[in-house]
Specification:
This protein is an alpha+beta fold and 209 residues long. The protein has helices spanning 5-27, 53-69, 97-105, 108-116, 119-130, 135-142, 147-159, 182-196; strands at 74-83, 86-96, 133-134, 163-165, 174-177. Helix 5 crosses helix 7 and helix 6 packs across helix 7 (147-159). The radius of gyration is 26 Å and the shape is extended.
């Protein structure tokens, strides 16, 4: 007997439609008459992770933000960094972690890490983070044999807008970290520090279901 593939496909479509209706009924139940549906909270709240009540207020605010916006997570970070008379201060509040994870999906994280994921470039970044420097000073500070070696590693950092020549303030040929990039560099190092911290090398997920 010859199979009727068209009929089979229509049958599968109908089955899928019924499954979707059942899933919808489970995940988004309608309110029954005389009854009030209570929305289940996804996150465990009220965990006292720090003795400072101000910090806990911020944490609970992040939890509320996640529930309200139905997002996977949120972080708030702030800091200050001073070197050679230059200061950078920053506050980033309720940053959506879904947006951060998307940096992997759109390859931006890979591009940034490839740009700085080199020992020579990191040494140049470190030196200029500490104080503005000329290429000649970088040759001496980082142990290079020529200015050409420095320029080779300096160019991608300049192209990535991490380093800039500060002719206006420091003088021609003097390079500094872009002020709006200091926060990102420090926070990237903070994340690496957490990965290396022994207290984070063991543990388990807190199950929220």
């Amino acid at each position: 007997m010859e199979r009727n593939y068209g009929a089979e496909i229509d049958g599968l479509k109908n089955d899928m439609g019924e499954i979707k209706q059942m899933l919808s009924a489970v995940t988004s139940p309608k309110e029954k008459s005389g009854e009030t549906q209570i929305k289940r909270e996804r996150l465990h709240k009220g965990m006292n992770l720090d003795p400072d009540p101000n910090i806990m207020t911020v944490l609970h605010g992040l939890e509320d933000t996640c529930e309200k916006n139905d997002q996977s997570g949120a972080i708030t970070y702030l800091g200050v960094y001073e070197s050679s008379g230059r200061q950078s201060t920053w506050v980033s509040n309720s940053v959506n972690t879904d947006r951060l994870l998307s940096l992997i999906e759109n390859k931006m994280a890979e591009r940034v890490l490839n740009c700085i994921g080199n020992g020579d470039r990191l040494n140049i970044l470190l030196s200029i983070m500490k104080k503005p420097m000329t290429v000649a000073q970088l040759v001496e500070q980082c142990g290079y044999n020529s200015t050409g070696q420095v320029y080779h590693h300096l160019k991608p950092l300049i192209a990535a807008d991490l380093i800039v020549e500060d002719a206006k303030n420091e003088g021609k040929g003097v390079y500094v970290i872009q002020p709006h990039r200091v926060q990102g560099i420090i926070m990237l190092l903070a994340g690496i520090s957490d990965m290396l911290d022994p207290k984070y090398t063991q543990g388990d997920w807190g199950i929220t279901e």
